[in-house]
Amino acid sequence: MPPLVLRIVAGLIGLVALGAFTLGIVNAPQRGRLPGEKPAASGAAVAPIQATEATPLGQDRIEGKPPPVPLTEEEQAKLEAAKQAKADADAAKVAAAGAAPAAVTPTVAPAAAPAPPPSAPPGEPPPQEEAPH
How far apart are CA 2 and CA 14, in angstroms? Predict the structure, then answer.
C-alpha cells in the first residue's frame, strides 16, 4: 500500500480511539463506588431491572412428550400380521436348525492362562507412572 493510504488509515484509527476515550470520560459518573456500596442518596435512585419470566423453548419440556396416537384397526391388523410372520420365520429357522446334522466341534484343551503380574510387597505402594507432558 502507498504510504499516504497507511497514514490516513492510521489517523482514522487514532481519531476513533481518541473519540472513544473522550466519550468514556464524559459519560463516567462523578464519583465511583465500590462493589456492595449503596448509591448516594442525593442522586436519583435507580430502580432495579424488572426481568421477564423465562419461558421454555417447547411445551414438551413442561408436559413431557404427547401420548402416542392410537392405531387404527387397519394399522393394528398390519402390525399383528407382521408379528405373526416374524414368529413363523423364527419357528422355521429353529425347525431347520434342529433337522440339520450337528456340527462336529473339535475339543481343544484350554490354553494356559497367562501368569498374573508380580505384585508389590504388602508394605509398599505401587509404583507411580509418570504424568503426561
Answer: 19
